[in-house]
């Protein structure tokens, strides 16, 4: 039975997907309170809005106002169920494909329009077979 | 009910008599199979009382204090913290009933 300290071991840690690619950072953690039972960790949150809310509620409002101004909807925070967490060490390894599942719009846009045009840049991801991690 | 840990960190906790017990500093869990179950809330006494700095800075200050000074760290069993109002967490016991760590 592994003991964890959530703020120290999980919050703000790097997320790594099943192909050992960076998948963002843990910006938030959801705890589910249950009647008569200890709370459990429900999910990990990622996204600019989660981070903005954490830094300051005012910053979150500014970000939402800016989105409204340029005619974009506020995206839902990307959530990873705790059951998808396979290993917690220096980074948090999760069993998802970040390219397919995580909404890295800015990263994808930059890769396609900027980084991908640099001579020699290749966006081919080396898809390794996911390792079996023991908790 | 879902509580966001990142918004809970740094919140001032009062005991059942309204005495200050510290601020939420960390959460201790046990991994059981695919689930992580909260066992204890960790409170650290901080001297800063304003919310003029962001929660992140406040949390970092708490971390620093707990590591460098003799800041009192108190461990609260999971069932002794009332989180029905996550903005104003309260102990369901007196502060002197909690062991200092």
Explained architecture:
- The complex is a heterodimer of chains A (about 140) and B (about 100).
- Chain A has about 140 residues and is an alpha+beta fold.
- Helices cover about 30% and strands about 30% of the residues of chain A.
- Chain A has a four-stranded mixed β-sheet, with no helix packed on it.
- In chain A, helix 2 (about 50-55) crosses helix 3.
- Chain A starts with a strand and ends in a 22-residue tail after the last helix.
- The model of chain A has no long low-confidence stretch (mean pLDDT about 80).
- Chain B is α+β, with helices and mostly antiparallel strands and about 100 residues long.
- Chain B has a single domain, classed as PRC-barrel domain (SH3 type barrels), CATH 2.30.30.
- Chain B is about 20% helix and about 40% strand.
- Chain B is built from two helices and seven strands.
- Chain B has helices at about 5-10, 55-70, and strands at about 1-5, 10-15, 20-30, 35-45, 75, 80, 90.
- In chain B, strands 2-3-4-5 form a four-stranded antiparallel β-sheet, covered by helices on one side. A two-stranded antiparallel ribbon of chain B has the order 6-7.
- Chain B is globular.
- Chain B starts with a strand and ends in a 10-residue tail after the last strand.
- The interface of A and B includes residues 11 and 39 of A.
- Strand 1 of chain A pairs antiparallel with strand 3 (about 20-30) of chain B, so a sheet runs across the interface.
Please sum up the structure shown.
The complex is a heterodimer of chains A (135) and B (101). Helices cover 29% and strands 29% of the residues of chain A.
Strand content of chain B: 35-45%
Quote the average pLDDT of chain A: 80
| Share of residues in helices of chain A | 25-40%
Number of DSSP helical runs of chain B: 2
Rg of chain A, rounded, reads 17 Å
Strand order of the largest sheet of chain B: 2-3-4-5
Total of domains of chain A: 1
Overall pLDDT metric of chain B:
81
Encode the helix/strand succession of chain A as letters.
EHEEEEHHEEEHH
The oligomeric state is heterodimer
The percent of residues in helical segments of chain B reads 10-25%
Q: Structural class of the helices, strands and pairings of chain B?
A: alpha+beta
CATH architecture verdict of chain A: Roll
Low-confidence stretches of chain B: 47-53
Number of helical segments with 4 or more residues of chain A? 5
CATH superfamily of chain A: PRC-barrel domain
Strand arrangement, major sheet of chain A: 3-2-8-7
